[in-house]
Write a structure and sequence with these properties.
The protein is of the alpha+beta class. It has one domain. Helix content is about 25%, strand content about 20%. It contains two helices and five strands; from the N terminus they run H-E-E-E-E-E-H. The termini are far apart. The model has no long low-confidence stretch (mean pLDDT about 85). The chain binds zinc ion. The site of zinc ion has 7 residues, from loops.
Amino acid sequence: MDDHERDELLARIEGLATPEPERPTGIDPDVEHEVTVVDAISYTAPNPFAQGEPMSDASPPPTMTSTLACQQCGSTSGWTLRGRWGSPAVISCAAGHVLESRDHRWLVSIMQRALVTAAR
Ligand SMILES: [Zn+2]
């Protein structure tokens, strides 16, 4: 299994665990939205330090919850998320650095969650 296949598998597993939230009535899927998230963003990812069985399709890797930190300045709060419902978020820190993530599924999900939270 290469990296890409592994990512896809993890995305599927995560997708099963977290159902897609319902789109708030005020959110137009054709319009790009910008949401400011003042608080730290946590995410769940495979635990790279986990001990145990080698990974296989039958046993997904153990996961751990981490706090999102800017890859350039280390900032963990004051994020801006830009994107549409159902599209991946462009996430930038308070200093304007754009976060790089290959996890398309997570970027779509975080955008939806931010929009749901902002619509409340
Ligand atoms: Zn930064």
